[in-house]
Each structure stands twice: as C-alpha cells, then as structure tokens.
Amino acid sequence: MTDDTFIEGPLYEKRRKVYPQSVHGPFRRIKWAILGVTLGTYYLLPFARWNRGPGLPDQAVLIDLPHRRFYFFFIELWPQEVYYFTGLLIIAAMTLFLMNAVAGRLWCGYMCPQTVWTDLFYAVERWVEGDRRERMQGDKRYWTFDHIRKVALKHFLWVMIAWWTGGAWVLYFADAPTLVKELATFQAPAIAYLWIGILTATTYLFAGHAREQVCIYMCPWPRIQAALTDEWALNVTYRRDRGEPRMSVKKAQVARAHADLAGDCVDCHQCINVCPTGVDIRHGIQLGCIQCGLCIDACDNVMREIGRPAGLIGYDTDVNMERRREGKAPIYRIIRPRTLIYTAAIAIVGGIMLYALATRATMDVNVLHERNPLFVQLSDGGVRNDYTVRILNKGAQRSFTLDVSGLPGATIRVAGIEAGPSGKPVVEVGQDQTREVRLSVQVGLADLPKTSRDIDIGIADTAGGGRANARDHFVPGDR
Prior knowledge:
single chain, alpha+beta, five-stranded antiparallel beta sheet, four-stranded antiparallel beta sheet, 18% strand
C-alpha cells in the first residue's frame, strides 16, 4: 500500500436494532430486585413523612428552595453547609471506583438509572409485543393492525412511566400530597409542569429509543473505567480455554469419542440474544458490555440443558485466564492496595461528615462591615463603625445577646432593639430562621486605638449558653 492510498468507509456505523431476549437466572433476579427497590424508593419516597416539630415541613426528603433548606429525615442542611454535598460527591466517586476495582462495571449493569429504566421499558415491551422472536417478526410486518395496536399501547405505557418519572422528581421540591393535588387541578406553578415535561421527554427518549446508544456513545464512564481497572478486577468473561473450539452438541460428542479437542460452546448465540446492548461476550471485554451478567444466566441454562458444567461465562479476572492456560488453579484478590485506598477514602470522608453532623452548631453569625461610610467621626472625637449582623438559628425560637470583644471601652447599640438586663442587646430569632440587624460599635476619643483592630462580634444563647463568633475589624478613622 502506497502512502497516498487510503481506505474509504463510513464515519458512523448504522445502528442495528437490539432485540434482547428474556432470560431467567440469579443475575436476572438480582436485577429485578434492584429495579424494584430503586424505582420504588424513587417514586414513593416523597410521600414519606418525618415529624420535625411545629412550623417545619414533615416531608422526609425535601429540597425547599424558597426557604433554602434541604431536609433528609433528621438532617437539615443550610446553604452555608454545601460542603456536605461535596463530601457526598467524593464518597460517590470513590464508591464508583471501588466497585470498578472489585467487579468492573457493576454500576452500569445493575444500578445506573439508564439501565434501570431501560430494563423497565424492555419489560413493558415484552409484555405487550412478546419476546425477541415475536418483536422481530412484528417489525417485519409493521403495518398490520395488530402490530400497530401493540406498538401504540407500548408507547402509551412508556409515556405514562416517563410522565410519572418526571412527576416524582418535582415532588422532592414541594410537599408531595399538596403538589399532586395542585397538578391534578392545574393549579401548580408553571415551572412544575415545565420540568415534568422535560423529564418525561428525556426518560421516554433515553429509555425507550436511545437505550444502548446512551451506554456506548453518550456516557463517558465506559471510557474512564478502562483506565481504572486492572488484571485483578472481576469482569464478565468468556472462558476461551474451555469454550473453544466451538461446535454443535453432536459434533462435540463425536469429537470427544475420537479423543479430539471439543469446546463446550455450541455457538447457540443465546449470550448475544439476551444482551441489552447486543454484545458478543466471546470477543472479550468491549465498550458496549455493561457487565450485567445476563449472558451468564443464558449460558448456564444452555449448559444445563446439554449436560455440561455451568460457568462457561462468568465473573473472572485476567490473571485467572492466564493461570488456566498454564494449568494453574484460579486465585482471587479482592483486597489489594487500590481497593484499600478507595475504602479508606470512603471511610475517612464519611467519618469527617458524621463527626461534623454530630457536632454541628445550631447557631451561627455572619458579619459584614459597612463600607459606605467605612467609619463615622463623632462630634466628641469618637468614632463609630457600623456592621450588618446576620444571626442564624437552626433550632427552636430563642433569644441571643450580642457582644463585642477585643476593643476596650467600646459601646454597642442595635437599631430598634433595647438592651437587656445585662446591658447587652437581646435579639429574638424565630425557629429555623435568620435575622439581620444593624450593629453600631462606638469608641470614645480616650479609648480610640491608633490603628485598625480586629474584633470579635459574638452571639450567646440566653437559655442554653451556646455561643458563636465572627471576626471583623474596627477602623479608628483618620488620625
């Protein structure tokens, strides 16, 4: 071939529609169980109740955007505590890495939302149109009345599932029973209908039409996980040392009778027929293989029918593939440096988050120094600085005293609030609320510092004794 010779071909491969066949076995049962638990949790969790006391929402899981709160059973997070979500993202990433190090694309095959909803859509499709052969034959005689009726029913059920998927999502942002009633009577906010429409369309498109295309072309994880796996990771594997050479059952019997080599694979294509992405696992690990284990169930069923041992396809490692070729026994190392590192990272971040939750304060204070003007020169020579103080009360309604430390001779005053018996301003803050007040700090000429000085502006619970401080500075003016 000369340098100026090149091969012309299509840039994109035309999609070949996949018709996954139903299969029975332990991995299929695991997938059904995960589907039931995950979808049941997603659809029903907004209706779970949790008593937080008077004046607070009783929805167990609620993202309360108007009041800037996130509720998860007994946990209540404020916008200032967004670092908890950062910790959750780190734990999620490390868990994904750990799953990949242990057994490849476990997430993709069993728990990914695309996999779960696509499984549900496939179940509806089989229930309405029949199994693999019936669906393929139906597509060949597409314009018959019976086929059109079935396809219409299938798409109607798909839209209903997608609609409830979008509807369940918006229920996490408002009181679920109330919002359901408002949606049914067309009194809900327009934004709720908009998001239901968007999520209905995307669920219907991805789970009903894109399907394996999402896994192969749209999702970045198959490409990332290839860099994270190693030779000790368990992956769905066709054991070539046992399966090759392939031949029919009768030919294999004849070959074995003559002491010739015969593999256990009978080339029945059942592993391909049940694969939701149409992968032939006998070609090795591929981008489209989501490691769901359905080909294992299919192959084990065939092996039982022909009287051969199960396990021709199974979760195995590259190391064991090589050891079997050498006639050695397989070994497994789930516990190794990378799995220990991932586990340690999950434990450390999780421990820090639990400690922070257990010791988190129910009060806080934020201070903003007024910039215009930065200070006020008084007629007697003294100087006044003004501050905007925001008090956060994450508990029941209570009173807080305001004080300033680090500035001898300072007097304080809060606009519109009288001082309490201790001589300090007392600020009432409602349950689970914030309150903003204007604080004036004044220093007479005799006590006025020569340079800017750091001060601590603090609040103290008048009943419980808790305390919170915020640091700012006092500007003495032009001296």
